[in-house]
Amino acid sequence: MSAQQQVQHLLDFVDASPSPWHVIKSVEAQLAGFNFVKLDETLKWTLEPSGRYYVVRDDSSIIIFVLGQKPLVETGFKMIGAHTDSPGLRIKPNTATSIDGLLRVGVEIYGGPILATFTDRDLSLAGRVNYKDAKNNIVSSLVKFDSPLLRLPNLAIHMNRMVNEEGLKLHKQNELPLILSTLAQECLPQTYFLELLKGQTACEIERILSWDLAVYDTQKGSFWGAENEFYADSQLDNLASCHAALQALLDDELLVNENTLVCAFFDHEEIGSESNRGADGSFLGDVLKRIALVTENNEEDFTRALAKSFMISADMAHAYQPNFPLAYDQDHKISVNKGPVIKVNANHRYSTEGVSEAMFVDWCEQACVPYQKYAHRSDLACGSTIGPITSARLGIRSVDVGNPLWAMHSIRESAGVLDHSYMIKVLKKFFAQ
Ligand code: CO
Q1: 386 CA distance to ligand 1 centroid (A)?
Q2: Residue 61 CA to ligand 1 centre (angstroms)
Q3: 240 alpha carbon to ligand 1 midpoint, in Å?
Q4: Distance from C-alpha of 78 to C-alpha of 397, rounded to nearest angstrom
Q5: How far is the centre of ligand 1, averaged over its atoms, from the C-alpha of 316 (Å)?
Q6: How many whole angstroms from 124 Cα to the centroid of ligand 1?
Q7: Cα(276) to centroid of ligand 1, in Å?
Q8: Distance in Å, CA 64 to ligand 1 centroid
């Protein structure tokens, strides 16, 4: 595949995955093409040599693994971690209200989005609805409204004269509700909203018990630039890394390997990773331990395997934007289309340390992939990733890397076409080591 085709494949993946729950569905669809078997955490596992498996926890985190031909104590686990969630707006439970002839839905802020970018966009809803089926079981169903359903219209500049001097500020409680409809007088707002959901789920509305719904941008991904050398879409942080890791893994040659390979994509990174399925939860440790024990290793073997293991924590990095030079450390400007970025932070906001950094450089060189090194401005607070958390919980060596991205946490982020294929290449090299 050309770099352009790889990015088109990424954009199709992102556009089919407007919520973390849809991300898992999209990943599972790709795994099905390579004969991966889904495991249930509540059942007893039997794992075949060189088997391909995956485990989903609570519909929005997934761990995929391929058993290697060599014993785990010799190879350890070779892992790539990324996250399935993106910052944005989520729908509150008692969401629909009527005011001045308009029906609005109340939202909560999930993680740290750039709120101003959510104004004047063709927004819609995606996520899961939980309801009781005919047998009285609680089941979940994915929902996705394809057409624009919601909008956050800006205030005209005539009423906000200083917007270009002071920036667009939105009050988080009062100024974020999204407009859904001009409501007929006789209709109850919440009933109207439930009717809409019903149309997407084929279940009776009185049986809907709860939902997990995200607001998403219906605009599809696009290429841009004079040579189409850039691309833009929502949720590139961090679906671009999930996609790169998956493309690195799903390679017929790699899938029959000496090494045990793992891709772990977690929900809840944007809100601190502390949940049953977040990187700071038990999910990865539980699955790795089970792999070891089911393949006839004892506790000590498992600890030895962890000591041999390595994780690449893949998350996007801050590309240099020349209009805002003062935002960057002038000696660590990273350029779009100049290769994957190794993220370094002395306070361990990134998990990179000297040795893991050197190892990643080596893999890049072996793969003939250019690389760059990033450090945040010393006078600015640095963001973090799942890298330090998983590295600390499991006691394994880790490096934080990612591709350059403009406008992180905007509803429309953009990045470089070449970087995506570079990343896939170096991740493949890591898995094959
Ligand atoms: Co991220």
Answers
A1: 9
A2: 15
A3: 10
A4: 11
A5: 6
A6: 22
A7: 19
A8: 20
Task: State the DSSP string of 362-422.
Answer: HHHHHTT---EEE---TTS-----HHHHHHHHHT-EEEEEE-EEESTTSSSEEEEHHHHHH
Q: Residue 236 and residue 409: Cα distance in Å, rounded?
A: 9
Residues of the chain within CATH 3.40.630.10 domain(s) are 3-86+234-432
Kindly give the distance from the C-alpha atom of residue 46 to the centroid of ligand 1, in angstroms, as a whole number. 34
What is the amino acid identity at position 138? I
- What is the third-level CATH fold of 3-86+234-432? Aminopeptidase (3.40.630)
**Distance from residue 146's CA to the centre of ligand 1 (Å):** 25
Output the CA 238–ligand 1 centroid distance in Å.
5
Query: What residues sit around ligand 1, an ion, with C-beta below 5 angstroms?
Result: 237-238, 315
Report field, pTM of the whole predicted structure over 0.90: yes
| CATH class held by domain 88-217 | mainly beta
Tens digit of pLDDT at every position of the chain (433 positions): 999 999 999 999 999 999 999 999 999 999 999 999 999 999 999 999 999 999 999 999 999 999 999 999 999 999 999 999 999 999 999 999 998 889 999 999 999 999 999 999 999 999 999 988 888 888 899 999 999 999 999 999 999 999 999 999 999 999 999 999 997 667 788 888 998 998 888 776 668 899 999 999 999 999 999 999 999 999 999 999 999 999 999 999 889 989 999 999 999 999 999 999 999 999 999 999 999 999 999 999 999 999 999 999 999 999 999 999 999 999 999 999 999 999 999 999 999 999 999 999 999 999 999 999 999 999 999 888 999 999 999 999 999 999 999 999 999 999 999 999 999 999 999 999 8
> What is the per-residue DSSP string for 268-318?
-GGGTS-STTSTTSSHHHHHHHHHHHHTT--HHHHHHHHHH-EEEEE--EE
| CATH 2.30.250.10 domain locations along the chain | 88-217
Is 382 in contact with 345 (CB distance < 8 Å)? yes
Distance from Cα 312 to the centre of ligand 1, integer Å: 14
